[in-house]
Design goal:
There is one protein chain. The protein has one helix at about 45-55, and strands at about 1-5, 10-15, 20-25, 35-45. The chain is α+β, with helices and mostly antiparallel strands and about 55 residues long. The model has no long low-confidence stretch (mean pLDDT about 75).
Length: about 55
């Protein structure tokens, strides 16, 4: 499953985890966009989701 949240975030999942990815734009010294990628993966396990919903 893949869900885009706005322009900078993407939520993906596999059988055991939910993963939040943040898009970044790499710029050169002049400020021109050179590459675009995805970083800052945050993995949310089902146990963590259960703990978050209990609080």
């Amino acid at each position: 499953m893949e869900i885009m949240v706005g322009q900078n975030y993407k939520i993906t999942s596999d059988a055991l985890n939910i993963i939040l990815n943040k898009k970044y734009l790499k710029k050169d010294k002049q400020g021109n966009v050179t590459t675009e990628g995805v970083s800052n993966k945050s993995v949310i396990t089902p146990l963590l989701m259960e703990l978050l919903t209990l609080s």
